[in-house]
Amino acid sequence: MRWWIVGNGSSLLDTPLDRLIGENTIACNQIHRMYDKTDWRPSVYLKFERATEIKHRWKEHVKLHLDMGIPCYLWETFKDGYPEGHPNYLDIPDGVGEYPNAIWTPDCEHKFYRPWNTRGSTGWHLPEICNGFCSVAIGMQIAVLRGATEIYLVGCDLGFTKPPHHFVDNYIPGGDYNANTDKLVRMSHEVAERDCPIPIYNATIGGELEVHKRVNLEDIL
C-alpha cells in the first residue's frame, strides 16, 4: 500500500496534484494555500510547528482541516494551549479543544533537536513518533504507522539557502531560511532513509533532494 507525502516546496506549482485524488496522501502546515489550485485534499493532515512569525494563525490552519473531517496528527499543545503562568502562555493561551478526528501527539525527547547541537536525535523510535525532525519526516513516520508498504515524496525541494522556499510567497513572513534550515531538513531525510522500515522514493519535480531514489511521478501513477 503506497502513501504519498506532500511537502510545501515551490515544485508543487508544477505537480499535478489532481492525479493524487484517491491516493493515500499526507500533507502538512500551510498546504491549504494550494487548495484554490486543485481539487485534491490530503487523506491525513499534520501540524507540529508553530512559527513565531505567524503568531496565532496556526489555529486557522488546524481548525480548517479538523472541520473538514480529515484525520489530523497534531502537537498536543494545540488542544488546550499553555497553562497560565507558562513562559509561552501569551503565544498559545488556548487551543482548539477536542475533535474526534484529532490525534494528539506529545513532544518526544528530541523535540528541539538540531543537527548542529550536541543534543542530537539518535533516530526514529516508532511506534512513538519522533518530532525532532522536519514535518515531512513526521509524515513518513505516520505513513508507516498507517500501514504503508512504500512511500513517495512530492514537493520536497530543499534548497533553503535561496528562494523560492515554498510554493507561495510569504509562507512565513520574514522566515529565517538559511544553511541551518537546509541542514536540518537534509539530515531529517538522511535519518529517514536509514531508519524507515519501508522504501522511500522521491517523485518531486526537480529540487535538490537526492537522499532517496528518484522516480517519475507520472510513471508511478
Provide a compact summary of the structure.
With about 220 residues, the protein is an alpha/beta fold. About 20% of the residues lie in helices and about 15% in strands. It has 5 helices and 8 strands, in the order E-E-E-H-E-H-E-H-E-H-E-E-H.
How would you describe this structure in keywords?
single chain; 221 residues; alpha/beta; sialyltransferase cstii, chain A; 8-stranded parallel beta sheet; 5 helices; 8 strands; 21% helix; globular
Q: Helices, strands, pairings?
A:
Layout: E1 2-6, E2 24-28, E3 44-47, H1 57-67, E4 72-75, H2 77-80, E5 102-105, H3 135-145, E6 150-154, H4 179-195, E7 200-202, E8 213-214, H5 217-220
Describe the structure.
The chain is α/β, with parallel strands linked by helices and 221 residues long. The chain is 21% helix and 14% strand. The chain is built from five helices and eight strands; from the N terminus they run βββαβαβαβαββα. It has helices spanning 57-67, 77-80, 135-145, 179-195, 217-220, and strands spanning 2-6, 24-28, 44-47, 72-75, 102-105, 150-154, 200-202, 213-214. An eight-stranded parallel beta sheet has the order 5-4-3-2-1-6-7-8, sandwiched between helices. β4, α2 and β5 (102-105) form a beta-alpha-beta unit. It is globular and about 55 Å long.
